[in-house]
Amino acid sequence: MRGTGRIIKGVGGFYYAANGKGDICTLKAQGKLRRGQQKPLVGDWIEFEPGKGKEDGWILKLLPRKNALIRPPVANLDALVITLSASSPQADLLLCDRLIVFARKNEIKPIIAINKMDECPDHPNAIVNDYAHTEVKVFSVSAKTGEGLDALKNALRGMTFAFAGQSGVGKSSLINALYGETQETGDISEKISRGKNTTRYCRLIPLESGGAALDTPGFSLLELELMEPEKLADYYPEFSTRGKTCRFSPCLHVSEPDCAVKEKLRNGEISHGRYDRYVMLLNELKERWNRRYD
Ligand SMILES: Nc1nc2c(ncn2[C@@H]2O[C@H](COP(=O)(O)OP(=O)(O)O)[C@@H](O)[C@H]2O)c(=O)[nH]1
Ligand SMILES: [Mg+2]
Ligand SMILES: [Zn+2]
Fold first, then answer.
1. Among the listed residues 30, 31, 32, 3, the one whose alpha carbon sits nearest the alpha carbon of residue 17
2. What is the pLDDT along the chain (294 residues), one digit of tens a residue?
3. Residue 263 is part of a domain; what is its CATH number?
């Protein structure tokens, strides 16, 4: 009997789909899909025909996607929890901003979790202030003591989300603390991923609350998708200057005179840290944009 479900894992041409009743089916993609170059992704909602007995079933159709990422290869992601550490490793805010742009460009909601609060005697105000006007919610948490986890869990309820950020910030520990022992932490996972050739593996963990957690190592090394440099500011809501406009259009908000964004920066409505990192990402994009036909 036909059913609808969601792909939670893909390995060597086989897909594993959950049908929402706790059953997992092993499926193959129909030739029709492959010929149409519609490669099923983890996270895809599908129509499928389960196999009879021990046979594998077939994916019949991919349902429309909200988004589809190339790296990691996943569809229909709702939120990205950008994880920082309040102690070590030192928070990489350039990576954080890169991930925010990446998320927004793909219609994924960015959320910041500052983990290891148990090791931080003072509240990490600098980071919180830096993101005050960015429309990114910041949660201070500890996977070790459980501090702040309920609030984060509530914010993620019903969503399909992934944790991203530097190695060692506590992504795996947070997923474990939030949803039970679903993955390996620290050097165990590193040994496993080095041992097998599974650096690209990616798996969705369906949650009782209805959402799903994506378990993937694939978000940390990230180059922004190439875009016109002048588009970068569109992903910084705090740069929006309702009413006032920059004298030049387009304006990159760097050295142009009468720039409304720089005025906001002078008035303290944009954080200097965010702005300085915007200029770094902008320069990187400009350079790649100029070389795009090389
Ligand atoms: N003190 C403290 N240590 C933590 C916390 N969360 C994770 N760790 C430790 O940080 C290290 C890296 O954690 P892991 O979850 O593997 O990080 P990942 O690489 O981001 O997945 C491990 O030794 C964890 O025990 C926390 O909230 N507090
Ligand atoms: Mg990990
Ligand atoms: Zn400007």
1. 3
2. 789 999 999 988 899 999 877 788 999 988 777 777 789 999 999 999 998 888 999 999 999 999 999 888 999 999 999 999 999 999 999 999 999 999 999 999 999 999 999 998 777 789 999 999 999 999 999 999 999 999 999 999 999 999 999 999 999 899 999 988 654 444 334 433 444 444 456 889 888 888 999 988 777 667 888 999 999 999 999 999 888 899 999 999 999 999 999 999 999 999 999 999 999 999 999 999 999 998
3. 1.10.40.50
Compute the distance from residue 246 Cα to the ligand 3 centre, in Å: 5
Last residue of a domain, one of 215, 247, 266: 215
Instruction: Give 118 Cα–ligand 1 centroid separation in angstroms.
Output: 11
Ligand 1 atom 22: the closest Cα is on which residue? 186
Total domains, the chain: 3
Whole-prediction pTM value? 0.91
Instruction: Please tell me the residue having the least CA distance from ligand 1 atom 6.
Output: 170
Q: Which of 189, 215, 241 is the last residue of a domain?
A: 215
Question: Are residues 146 and 269 both part of a single domain?
Answer: no
Residue type, 72: P
Q: Are residues 93 and 144 in the same domain?
A: yes
Pair 85, 91: CB distance under 8 Å? yes
3-state secondary structure 248-283: CCCCCCCCCCCCHHHHHHHCCCCCHHHHHHHHHHHH
